[in-house]
Write a structure and sequence with these properties.
heterodimer; A: about 525 residues; alpha+beta; 3 domains; four-stranded antiparallel beta sheet; three-stranded antiparallel beta sheet; about 55% helix; rod-shaped; B: about 425 residues; f41 fragment of flagellin, N-terminal domain; 2 domains; 9 helices; about 50% helix
Chain lengths: ~525, ~425
């Protein structure tokens, strides 16, 4: 048997459900352009008749007791989210590495501007000029000027590569790690708020959207995995309230460290180690603290970052290709190969100009301290002996002249130097005992920027492919969770009609009651 | 809605980027602006650039050498004319045994002025360098000593004696040690040999004609050798009973850096220089023949162009079996001296006149050799110019794109971009809202 006012209650529930649905639809429509907003939907369920607790079975047609709006949920696909984050990490890694390599390419690019290779060509031209004009001071000094300019170009290139390294290190510290720290902290605080809201029964969907946007951004920097963990806490409406955990994972998906666990989080820091045998130009290390002990930082090996911008920056800063057996030719490779080239150049020229068995008594090029040991691209300069001597320091001939005769108009030693610089088998640049390049001196200089060009070319196409895939995944995500005006418009009509119908029913129920109360049993009045 | 809008934005930006790239290419027509744009084109371009620079260097070397050679040719012709004039019947051709001193006097004068002309001509300079000096530098190659003998770079062209004194060149692994005995000791050390060794205490000893210098361990530099000779040689010679009259030991020097190690071997001391070597001296210029070097560091002659013109090859050098010089200057001098004396006999003067005729034909040979060199250089020049053209064409091929291709590409990109913009109005559609009241 139904109660007297049951119809009114049923109508009321219908109207209320329709109204809250309309409000949610309005919420969706007004957030159509909000970034990261996931469309919401009211979950409705019919209320069953409350006849289950009767002692005796009842008969007759029992109706349910209306509709209940049980909650609001988001339309979001967590699988696509996970895919997006993994891909985002890949994009971040390749774009960070590409940025660093592009900066180096700008320094070494000689397609349209003159650099080391062009200056080497100029030195050769001056040497050739000396053979056909004679050994007078006028032409020896142009050779010296050309050589001096060449050393300047070497110095500038080395200095600029250093500056690039510092710049990328700055980006790692301030941009990648700094941002990641802020995100982890904010996610932890949001976790706390969302959990409290969930316990209180209000789903806090807008905060969840905010948190998802932050997690997406964090995934750019590191390879992370997000999981909802039931820590045996509170259950609301039969569902356990979960904690959000974010962990750093390796290539196989195995957890390495926990980054965020509900409201607790870690912080990262970047340290630079001084140069040593394995890393002749120093090393950048990322350190991590403990959730329980925020003041103690320990090193994280580079291998634990397998993807993300941090990984890209670490590859660029710490890996030196053939020089240390790693896969990426980072800034260390280009520094070392430039140094090797400068050193080899100085060695060849110094030998050609010297007259003693040890082949070092009349060096043309020296390090900035005047000695010939430890010449690098950054410190190569004209040897002090050549600077100060007016004429005749450059040895033009190996023939011993007759007593009292000046035979310096002979050209065989200059030709020898020319051959050293031009000859196609004269120079071998070695890394760890393996040959990186064999060919002429100019070829060695060109090879540096050509290898870089090839690396960048392949990295750029990989990066493009990654970005395109990321875009596709994002399109798929948005297809599901972004607001579709058409659908909301139909919902408006739908719920509007439902509201009108429920209101109509309420009027009908009222009339029914009116008929029963006021118009029934009036016989004989 | 949001998805469609953001996808459209991405596509539009991509199209705009492609348009911008095509724009750059249509303005500078380069196929790449940095190696990463097209690594293979970049590699070929750098290679071609190097080859083109090399070729330019060869061409500039060639033109320097050609100008020097032309200048040398006209000088040699002048000298040749002088010598053939000297051989003409007017002068040497007309010498008979019956001429009086008065008839000989104008000939003597003429011969002497010819000598002076030849000396000036052979010291000609071209662009700051002496044409006929070979590998010599600094002073003019030809000079005359106090006795009127012709010296080529300090060496008497008739006898081969170096007026700068005797020397001994001790062979060494990387560079020989040269001991110079100085002008002041001219002729005094001839016939000795000197041996340098290390070990034990330093000492100098002489036995027979052999001088042995022992340098103590750790004191085996050139400077030490010089010191040992300056201080110890005199005593050693005296001890061996050898004459030391007139020797100035302080003038003995060792060439090169004093800190370098001295070579240990032996060599003869001599003041004679090989005139053949001097006449065959080479100064090599790279004209793109594939420069090669021997193991000892000398240039392989066929792999470069020899631009040296040693003066004594033109004027002649040395003496024949009877003591008659081959050299034009010396001959003219000797002939004019004989004519100037009171008695002239044809039998004594005839060998000199014959040698003068020989020298004239030598000069003619040398002149035609220069002509042959010029022809060779001309054909090399044509070859190098061809190579240069080919390299320019090759560079254009790899480094630049066809202007027509670049412009068509740019117009296509423009069209794509316009189409993308127009699509926008169709994609960003009206929604149902526009149709509801």
């Amino acid at each position: 048997m139904s109660t007297t006012f049951e119809g009114l209650y049923i109508a009321k529930s219908g109207v209320q459900a329709a109204r809250s649905s309309l409000n949610i639809t309005g919420q969706n429509i007004s957030n159509v352009n909000t970034a990261g907003y996931t469309r919401q939907r009211v979950d409705q369920s019919a209320i069953p008749p409350s006849a289950g607790k009767m002692l005796y079975a009842s008969s007759g047609a029992l109706s349910g007791e209306g509709v209940a709006a049980t909650g609001v949920s988001q339309l979001r696909n967590t699988f696509l989210d996970a895919q997006y984050r993994t891909q985002g990490a890949k994009c971040g890694a390749s774009s960070a590495l590409l940025d660093g390599m592009d900066s180096i390419e700008q320094i070494l690019n000689e397609s349209t501007t003159d650099g080391i290779s062009a200056q080497l060509g100029n030195l050769l031209t001056q040497l050739q000029g000396m053979t056909s004009n004679g050994g007078g001071t006028a032409t020896e000094s142009t050779v010296r000027n050309a050589a001096s300019l060449l050393t300047t170009f070497f110095n500038i290139a080395a200095h600029n590569i250093d500056a690039t390294q510092q710049k990328q290190l700055g980006y790692l510290q301030d941009h990648a790690v700094g941002q990641a720290n802020i995100l982890m902290r904010d996610i932890a605080s949001l976790n706390q708020q969302i959990k409290s809201a969930n316990i209180a029964g209000t789903p806090a969907l807008e905060l969840t959207d905010q948190r998802n946007a932050m997690i997406d951004e964090l995934s750019q920097y590191m390879n992370i995995r997000v999981s909802e963990v039931d820590n045996g806490g509170v259950s609301v409406k039969g569902q356990p309230v979960t904690d959000l955990e974010i962990s750093l994972v390796d290539g196989d998906g195995k957890t390495i460290r926990s980054l965020v666990s509900n409201d607790r989080y870690v912080q990262l820091k970047v340290e630079t180690l001084p140069p040593d045998a394995t890393y002749p130009y120093g090393k950048a290390t990322v350190q991590i603290n403990k959730m329980a002990d925020p003041d103690t930082y320990t090193d994280l090996p580079d291998s634990q970052f397998v993807s993300g911008e941090i990984h890209g920056y670490l590859q660029f800063l710490n890996e030196s290709g053939e020089f240390d057996g790693t896969a990426t030719r980072g800034v260390g490779y280009y520094k070392q190969v430039l140094d090797e080239t400068a050193r080899k150049f100085a060695e060849l020229m110094n030998k050609a100009n010297s007259t003693n068995d040890a082949q070092d008594n009349a060096p043309l090029f020296a390090a900035s301290d005047g000695g010939t040991a430890g010449i690098t691209a950054a410190n190569i300069t004209i040897a002090p002996g050549w600077e100060s001597d007016g004429k005749g320091y450059l040895r033009t001939t190996r023939e011993t002249g007759n007593a009292g005769d000046d035979n310096s108009a002979g050209t065989d030693n200059i030709e020898y130097m020319i051959r050293l610089l031009e000859g196609s088998d004269a120079v071998t640049i070695e890394a760890n005992g393996k040959s990186v390049f064999t060919g002429s001196m100019q070829g060695a200089v060109d090879d540096i920027s050509l290898k870089l060009g090839q690396d960048i070319g392949s990295l750029a196409s990989q990066s493009e492919a990654d970005a395109s895939t990321l875009n596709n995944i994002d399109a798929g995500r948005q297809e599901i969770s972004s607001v579709d005006i058409n659908e909301e418009a139909i919902s408006l009509i739908q719920y509007n009609q439902a509201l009108a119908a429920s209101a109509r029913f309420m009027t009908t129920a009222d009339e029914v009651l009116d008929t029963i109360i006021n118009n029934m049993g009036l016989a004989g009045r | 809605m949001g998805m469609i809008a953001s996808q459209y934005k991405t596509r539009l930006n991509q199209s705009l980027k492609a348009l911008s790239d095509a724009n750059i290419r249509a303005t500078n027509y380069r196929s790449f602006n940095k190696p990463s744009d097209d690594p293979f084109a970049a590699a070929r371009t750098f290679q071609v650039r190097r080859e083109a620079e090399q070729n330019e260097n060869y061409q500039s070397n060639l033109s320097s050498v050609q100008s020097a050679l032309k200048s040398a040719e006209s000088t040699v012709q002048l000298v040749s004319e002088i010598v053939s004039n000297a051989n003409s019947t007017r002068i040497c051709g007309g010498i008979t045994g019956t001429m009086t001193k008065d008839t000989r006097a104008p000939i003597v004068k003429e011969l002497q002025s010819m000598r002076a002309s030849i000396l000036t001509d052979m010291n000609a300079k071209f662009s700051d360098q002496y044409l006929f000096g070979g590998a010599g530098s600094g002073a003019p190659p030809f000079s005359v000593d106090g006795d009127g003998n012709l010296l080529y770079r300090g060496v008497n062209v008739d006898t081969g004696v170096n007026t700068n004194g005797a020397s001994a060149v001790i062979p060494g692994s990387s560079s020989p040690t040269q001991i110079l005995f100085g002008k002041e000791n001219a002729g005094l050390f001839n016939g000795y040999t000197i041996a340098v060794q290390t070990g034990g205490a330093g000492s100098v000893s002489v036995s027979g004609n052999d001088i042995t210098v022992t340098l103590g361990a750790g004191h085996a530099t050139k400077g030490d050798l010089e010191e040992a000779l300056q201080n110890g040689l005199g005593a050693a010679l005296a001890a061996a009973g050898k004459p030391t009259e007139g020797m100035d030991f302080s003038k003995i020097t060792v060439a090169g850096n004093a800190e370098d190690a001295a070579a240990t071997a032996s060599a003869a001391i001599s003041d004679k220089v090989s005139l053949d070597d001097l006449a065959g001296e080479g100064v090599y210029v790279d004209l793109g023949f594939g420069l090669q070097f021997n193991a000892d560091g000398s240039v392989v002659p066929q792999s470069a162009y020899d631009a040296s013109l040693p003066g004594i090859a033109f004027l002649g050098y040395g003496m024949n079996g009877d003591g008659v010089p081959n050299n034009v200057y010396s001959l003219l001098g000797k002939i004019s001296d004989m004519l100037d004396s009171d008695n002239v006999s044809m039998s004594t003067i005839q060998p000199y006149l014959d040698s003068l005729k020989q020298a004239e034909s030598n000069l003619t040979t040398q002149t035609s050799a220069i002509g042959a060199k010029e022809t060779f250089l001309d054909s090399t020049q044509t070859y190098l110019e061809d190579v240069s053209e080919n390299l320019t064409a090759k560079d254009n091929d790899v480094e630049y794109v066809e202007p027509s291709d670049a412009i068509i590409d740019w117009m296509t990109q423009q069209f794509c971009y316009q189409a993308c913009l127009q699509m926008g109005t169709n994609i960003l559609q009206p929604t149902l809202m526009d149709f509801l009241k």
